[in-house]
Specification:
360 residues, PH-domain like, 6-stranded antiparallel beta sheet, 3-stranded mixed beta sheet, 45% helix, 14% strand, binds zinc ion
């Protein structure tokens, strides 16, 4: 017998569960899942009554769902030990999955074919085409919905950030940001957060945060502009939104497309932000579109190659920016190839050494 944990933690969603207090502890036994603490009064779902599947970005979450008279509940579990506790009792194969098409006995009635077989085929096609459906869903989520969700998510995120309203580099960052976002449907906000980690990130809807550590490690305003251009393209190309749609599940997708933003969607949105990793192709996309945006803004895009290459070369600090944005050789080769030849750019009009401030 393997030594398996008999308790764990996860995030609980369902009727009556406050999204702000949905962190749940639970223990497992032969009877089912018993919640503790705040959620101890909850109905104990028996193993026979629960369904499970993999979800979240890259399928790293274990999602357990069950139905009670009060409605649908789900438990999202991220850490491996807690997942192990559940998997020790769950059937070995996910119970929510594509069903193989039923035995196609000689059914002569067209009505039965239409009523029974067609939905199965459609569901099969939907699951098979999940990637394209996500693209479809993402392209159908209204910008206003995305902005509203992004704003809500950023409001939560910023509680954990030391936003500096009076950093000397803030006007420069905002001016560069404005040049790189001309004509965008998103109402961008550019912020500086006190954080030594060399990093920057953008949230859906146009919320861009640059760490003081990144400002300090860039050598020129062009290098800063390159990072900003890259982050902005994650927003413009809806990479974060795509990841969230993937992670949030179909119920959320449907209500996003319809323009609703319920509490539980915002909850799972924020919950998943920490896990969002962009794919290699999305990173390259953000680089190449970022280069184009820099050129349009008449800012030398060479800063992108300079900054990422310099960071990658220095093994003394493994910058957070590179763990979320691996600076592969292919990536920089692609950027170099995308740089327009024989074009000159006026230097950005900032005393960068003064404005970048100290790292802390
Ligand atoms: Zn990126």
């Amino acid at each position: 017998m393997k030594n398996v944990a008999s308790s764990g933690t996860g995030l609980l969603f369902g009727p009556g569960v406050d999204p702000a207090e949905n962190a749940a502890r639970f223990s497992v036994s032969a009877l089912g899942i018993q919640f503790q603490g705040l959620h101890a009064a909850l109905h104990v779902p028996a193993w026979s009554a629960v369904r499970w599947r993999r979800g979240g970005f890259n399928d790293t979450q274990l999602l357990v769902e069950w139905t009670t008279p009060a409605g649908e509940f789900s438990l999202s579990v991220g850490d491996v030990a807690s997942q192990g506790a559940l998997l020790a009792h769950l059937p070995s194969a996910p119970s929510i999955t594509t069903r193989p098409s039923q035995t196609t006995r000689a059914v002569s009635s067209t009505v039965i074919v239409v009523l029974v077989l067609l939905p199965i085929v459609v569901i099969g096609l939907l699951l098979w085409q999940a990637d394209r459906l996500i693209d479809w869903a993402v392209s159908n989520i209204p910008v206003e919905t995305e902005i509203r969700l992004g704003r809500e998510a950023f409001a939560q995120q910023r509680q954990g950030l030391a936003i500096l309203e009076d950093h000397p580099g803030l006007p420069m960052l905002r001016q560069i940001g404005a040049r790189l976002t001309q004509g965008s449907p998103y109402p961008y906000e550019f912020h500086i957060a006190r954080d030594e980690a060399i990093n920057a990130f953008a949230m859906p809807g146009g919320f861009v945060v640059v760490h003081t550590g990144l400002l300090a490690s860039a050598d020129t305003a062009e290098e800063l502009a390159a990072v900003v251009a890259h982050e902005v393209q994650h927003v413009e190309r809806r990479h974060g939104l795509r990841g969230l749609v993937h992670a949030a599940g179909w119920r959320a997708v449907l209500s996003l497309v319809l323009g609703n933003t319920g509490g539980s969607i915002a909850g799972s949105w924020v919950e998943n932000l920490g896990d969002l990793r962009f794919s290699r192709s999305q990173e390259t996309d953000a680089d190449l579109e970022g280069v184009k945006a820099l050129v349009r803004a008449d800012i030398d895009p060479q800063g992108m190659v300079a900054f990422f290459s310099r960071l990658a070369k220095d093994p003394s600090h493994l910058p957070a920016l590179l763990s979320s944005h691996p600076a592969s050789t292919e990536r920089m080769t692609a950027v170099r190839a995308a740089l327009p030849k024989d074009r000159a750019y006026p230097p950005l009009p900032y005393d960068y050494q003064r404005l970048r401030g100290a790292a802390k």
